[in-house]
């Protein structure tokens, strides 16, 4: 597997940063060195009965220290197991870096929206750090637990939308864009499909280039099993149908390339 590495990574630290949301730093050998914003890793359970790894996007990449930060939501037994690794030195098997990242070169000399919804917010941290130019983060949360707000504010203007209206704009990320009269030339987004679908329509309406990172349940994480396909406009060379594999062809796509 060229460019991908399976490693037994060491847990450096872990903390709960919002209800059911955990932040973990991992010491790696080669993965951090090769990773770019928008990629993910597959994290394996130490329980032999759970064979399939969990795909988790990269939140921060520290190439100097060969460390990665992942921020994930506990959604099942696999992620509940990961949340138990609190001791420095705990080991966890990971595969990465996987998928393609956000095309940073598309933002040069342009105003950019970085839009994250829920657990699609973490990838925006490293992206905001590495992207050149004028950046605005619009983050969508359920309530006033604005995880990663401080990190995002360090590198970009920050706006929040909350479903319950407790902070920022009441509603979704598009409501925040309209309420604050924000404008951009390029959009980079990650989050649930309804959010991405609405952003795709908004981008087409406003004639804005839009790149989306799709959240799909994955199995192998390397493009072999076709468990995470999405509908595409073009015929896929691998399966010869109108599909793209989110794990290998994505998770980042030009919004006009895929059907949502």
Fold blueprint:
Layout: E1 5-18, E2 21-27, H1 31-34, E3 40-43, E4 54-62, E5 67-73, H2 77-82, E6 91-98, E7 111-117, H3 123-130, E8 134-141, H4 149-153, E9 157-162, E10 169-170, H5 173-179, E11 186-191, H6 193-206, E12 209-214, E13 229-231, E14 243-245, E15 252-254
Parallel strand pairs: 7-8, 7-11, 8-9, 9-10, 11-12
Antiparallel strand pairs: 1-2, 1-6, 2-5, 3-4, 3-6, 4-5, 12-15, 13-14
Rounded to an integer in angstroms, the radius of gyration calculated over CA atoms is: 18 Å
Structure class: alpha/beta
Largest sheet: 7 strands, mixed
Distance between the termini: 30 Å
Query: Major sheet: order of its strands?
Result: 10-9-8-7-11-12-15
Low-confidence stretches: 217-229
Strand tally, please? 15
The count of helical stretches stands at 6
Helical amount: 10-25%
Multimerization state: single chain
Mean pLDDT: 88
Q: What is the ordering of alpha helices and beta strands? A: EEHEEEHEEHEHEEHEHEEEE
What is the strand content? Answer: 35-45%
The rough form would be described as globular
């Amino acid at each position: 597997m060229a460019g991908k590495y399976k490693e037994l990574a060491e847990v450096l630290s872990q903390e709960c940063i919002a209800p059911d949301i955990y932040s973990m730093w991992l010491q790696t050998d080669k993965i951090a060195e090769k990773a770019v914003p928008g990629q993910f890793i597959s994290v394996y359970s130490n329980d032999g009965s759970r064979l399939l790894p969990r795909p988790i996007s990269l939140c921060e990449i520290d190439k100097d220290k060969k460390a990665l930060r992942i921020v994930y939501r506990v959604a099942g037994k696999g992620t509940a197991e990961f949340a138990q690794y609190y001791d420095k030195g705990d080991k966890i098997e990971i595969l990465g870096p996987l998928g393609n990242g956000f095309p940073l070169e598309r933002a040069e000399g342009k105003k950019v929206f970085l839009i994250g919804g829920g657990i699609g917010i973490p990838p925006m941290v490293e992206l905001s750090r590495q992207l050149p130019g004028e950046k605005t983060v619009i983050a969508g949360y359920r309530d006033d637990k604005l995880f990663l707000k401080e990190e995002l504010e360090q590198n970009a203007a920050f706006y929040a939308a909350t479903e319950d209206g407790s902070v920022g704009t009441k509603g979704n990320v598009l409501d925040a864009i309209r309420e604050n009269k924000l404008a951009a030339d390029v959009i980079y987004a990650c989050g649930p499909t309804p959010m991405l679908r609405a952003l795709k329509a908004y981008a087409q309406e406003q004639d804005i280039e839009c790149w989306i990172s799709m959240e799909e349940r994955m199995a192998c994480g390397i493009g072999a099993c076709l468990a995470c396909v999405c509908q595409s406009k073009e015929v896929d060379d691998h399966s010869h149908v109108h599909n793209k594999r989110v794990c290998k062809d994505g998770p980042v796509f030009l919004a006009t390339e895929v059907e949502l």
